[in-house]
Specification:
This protein is α+β, with helices and mostly antiparallel strands and about 525 residues long. The protein has eleven helices and 19 strands. The chain has helices at about 1-15, 135-150, 175-185, 195-205, 220-240, 275-290, 310-315, 325-345, 360-370, 425-435, 500-510, and strands spanning about 50-55, 70-75, 80, 85-90, 110, 120-125, 155-160, 170, 250-255, 295-300, 370-380, 390-395, 400-405, 405-410, 445-450, 455-465, 480-485, 490-500, 515-525. It has a five-stranded mixed beta sheet, with helices on both faces. Strand 9 (about 250-255), helix 6 and strand 10 (about 295-300) form a beta-alpha-beta unit. Helix 2 crosses helix 9 (about 360-370), helix 4 packs parallel to helix 7 and helix 5 (about 220-240) packs parallel to helix 6 (about 275-290).
């Protein structure tokens, strides 16, 4: 995930996430900028457990009038004291479209004047588990959510489990960029294990003896694909861990993990040896998601299916029923794949969208889940790292349905960040650049203008604007601006960190607006 994190860091800077090291707080006459809306604040300890809770009535309508006293949180069966409680209610903003213009015009200047107050999604498109012939259906399902359900105040990133490194898209609200990333989807799913075993049966029929196991020749590659997809989900969840006080959602667009995890101990002669590996990878995803308070929504783009494509590939099944190859094995693969989506979703507080052709209703429910919910937080009684604890959230009011994550894993002690002696960036600057979301600290506006440079590079001019009256600089305070350029493959092509002491001092004394034209950085064209 490091490559994509760096790509998002560029977006973070362009959305003006810069902080000043050692900056004194403003005087009482100018109150500090408000904190991010509706998020709980902990000032003493940071090892608290945060739980997003959705409470609905029997008709599925959100219940909005609950109080902290109405909730009970149990960790490993023991009641916990809820330290912070809030109801998050995020509006759904519609983009402003100019007259006679079908789509909104994307601004060329980014600003962090308004704190981010939207929903945040990462759409993971599973190329490894998408049939090539069904790639258009995957694109259609993904585009439907972006075009119809992504609000103007939301952010989304696109991550592919396979394909070129520039196929993904960092966080943006620009639908054109998101749709372009979806269009780079290319299904790479292997043929079903039943189809492979059928071909293997007919190929070796004359050499086989009674009772011989019929293997799937692509079993090892199937394990690799499953592990790669699950590793991507785990990395996205880990990356999301730094975002607090709001619901974080992964839209997992996939036909499901197509590996039989029930046969952990393979019979003699079988090459089916990866069940425990896939099981462990699944547990790692759930542990990372629950630790980071991330909800996964598994979306099967096939809708209602009769496995017609797979049946056409096979033609006729072996007459020898002892091989276990037949229609039942084909439908067992479908069940296992859809169960993988259900497990990942249910265990992390989401739900699976399977066996349905109406995605609109499911998408509306996903948006509702991420628009209005309760955030409960408590300090865990056992903060030792690496411990898995079960969570049970209840309400005292009868007749209500409660959905929340079922467990969490206490994080391990973070390793000290290794920095180069040449790295002059402050901890605040590094945190801002690494943040998945825009940070509202010092109000800034930024634009980037590319120019033709010496091939194969381009020259990028950064323009940064902020108000001098917002700066309250003491004698030894310093303002840092850090920037770097990243190419489509995620490689850092150039950057620098500037300390603006003399200019800031004069601007601070004048308390007037000023502009800064940033230096040029190289970026591969």
């Amino acid at each position: 995930m490091k490559r994509r994190a760096r790509a998002a860091a560029l977006f973070t800077f362009l959305t003006c996430t810069a902080l000043s090291a050692g900056q004194n707080p403003p005087a009482a006459t100018n109150p500090p900028p408000p904190p991010p809306p509706q998020g709980p604040t902990f000032r003493v300890r940071v090892d608290y457990v945060e739980v997003d809770v959705i409470v609905t009535d029997r008709q599925g309508n959100l219940v909005r009038d609950l109080k902290k006293e109405d909730f009970q949180v149990l960790e490993d069966g023991k009641p916990q004291t809820v330290t912070t409680f809030t109801l998050v209610d995020i509006p759904i903003d519609r983009p402003d479209r100019p007259l006679y213009q079908a789509d909104p015009i994307e601004p060329d200047v980014k600003s962090n004047e308004q704190p981010f107050d939207g929903r945040v999604y990462v759409m993971v498109i599973d190329d490894y588990h998408t049939n090539f012939g069904r790639t258009p259906r995957v694109k259609l399902a993904a585009k439907q959510f972006i075009e119809q359900r992504l609000a103007a105040n939301d952010l989304m990133a696109i991550v592919h489990t396979a394909g070129p490194s520039d196929a993904s898209q960092e966080f943006t609200s620009n639908k054109k960029l998101l749709l372009a990333a979806v269009d780079r989807t290319q299904g790479r799913k292997l043929k079903s294990a039943t189809a492979n075993r059928t071909e293997e049966y007919y190929r070796t029929r004359d050499q086989r003896q009674a009772g011989d196991v019929v293997n799937d020749p692509e079993d090892a590659e199937r394990v690799f694909n499953a592990r790669s997809t699950l590793d991507t989900l785990r990395q996205v969840s880990d990356w999301f861990a730094s975002v607090r006080g709001r619901r974080k959602t992964i839209l997992f667009v996939s036909e499901g993990i197509d590996y039989d995890i029930n046969e952990v101990i393979a019979p003699t002669g079988s090459n089916h040896l990866g069940a425990s590996t896939v099981l462990d990878a699944t547990r790692d995803v759930i542990a990372s998601a629950t630790r980071a308070n991330v909800s996964i929504y598994g979306i099967d783009p096939r809708g209602l299916t009769d496995l017609g494509d797979e049946s056409i590939e096979i033609g006729s099944f072996p007459d020898d029923t002892s091989t276990g190859i037949g229609t039942s094995s084909l439908y067992n693969e479908l069940r296992l794949a859809q169960d993988s989506l259900r497990v990942l979703s249910d265990e992390t507080g989401g739900f699976a969208v399977v066996n349905r052709n109406d995605f609109s209703t499911a998408y509306q429910r996903i948006v509702q889940d991420n628009s209005a919910y309760y955030v409960l937080a408590y300090y865990p009684p056992d903060a030792r790292p690496g411990r898995l604890h079960k969570i049970d959230v209840r309400v005292t009011r009868p007749g209500l349905v409660v959905r929340a994550r079922k467990a969490y894993l206490t994080p391990k002690k973070p390793e000290p960040v290794k920095t180069s002696a040449k790295d002059t960036r402050s901890a605040e600057i590094r945190e801002a650049l690494d943040s998945p979301l825009p940070i509202s600290g010092l109000g800034m506006s930024v634009f980037a203008a590319p120019f033709k440079g010496t091939p194969p590079n381009a020259s990028v001019l950064l323009g940064v604007e902020l108000r001098g009256r917002d700066l309250r600089m003491a004698q030894n305070d310093q303002l840092q601006i850090s920037y770097f350029a990243i190419d489509a493959q995620g490689k850092v092509r150039g950057g620098n960190t500037d300390a603006l002491e003399d200019l800031i001092k004069s601007a601070s004394e004048a308390r007037a607006g000023w502009q800064l034209g940033g230096p040029r950085g190289s970026n591969k064209s």
